[in-house]
Design goal:
Layout lengths: L5 E5 L3 E15 L6 E15 L3 E21 L6 E24 L2 E22 L2 E25 L3 E23 L4 E6 L1
Antiparallel strand pairs: 1-2, 2-3, 3-4, 4-5, 5-6, 6-7, 7-8, 8-9
Length: 191
């Protein structure tokens, strides 16, 4: 994993930063044809402001690709045939904003967060070593949340905390298509 952080102080109470990241892994899964590998890269940028009101913001995005092969091994474990290749690309983007402030005996906390994820699975099926079908499945998901919290100091030994949060999420553009190569026919399902 590579994840450097670059920052800059803004005045006496503020800061901004950028944090790129990269991860890769590849491995064999016990046979000559069964392998998988993952590549993940992303970027987070954000900032903080401290004072009577503290603020924190973050924006992020990234991409992940997962590749895997599947095979069939005969009963005597003498031969192996490729039966599926899979690639799973995923992209995401989002952000958050957070405020907190002390007002008398109260500490008020508020903010929101949002994210959009797009993913799919691209697969090629093999029959006796020859490509036989291509399948693509995928969709998107959006999440959003907003929250408010009050932390009340009651005397020297007690704290009363109350809060609310609203979340909304939706899954959309979900679909799956399979094309049979021998017949050149395609079946599609929309979710």
């Amino acid at each position: 994993l590579i994840r450097p952080r670059f920052g800059y102080l803004v005045g006496k109470r503020g800061s901004i930063f950028a944090e790129p990241s990269y991860f890769t892994e590849a491995r064999a899964n016990g046979t000559r044809l069964q392998t998988n590998r993952t590549h993940i890269n992303g970027l987070v940028i954000g900032g903080d402001i401290a004072g009577r009101v503290n603020a924190r913001w973050r924006m992020f995005g990234g991409r992940q690709v997962y590749d895997q092969t599947f095979s069939a091994v005969d009963a005597l474990r003498v031969s192996e045939v490729l039966n599926r290749i899979q690639r799973v690309p995923v992209q995401n983007i989002g952000g958050s904003f957070h405020l907190n402030a002390a007002v008398g005996r109260h500490t008020i906390v508020a903010g929101f967060d949002a994210r959009n994820v797009r993913g799919e699975s691209d697969e090629t099926a093999y029959s006796m070593g020859t490509p036989s079908a291509i399948t693509n499945s995928g969709g998107r998901q959006t999440t959003f949340g907003v929250y408010l919290q009050d932390i009340l100091t009651v005397g020297k030994r007690a704290v009363l905390i109350g809060g609310v949060r609203f979340d909304k999420w939706s899954n959309y553009r979900g679909s799956s298509t399979t094309s049979t190569l021998a017949t050149n026919q395609t079946a599609a399902t929309v979710f």
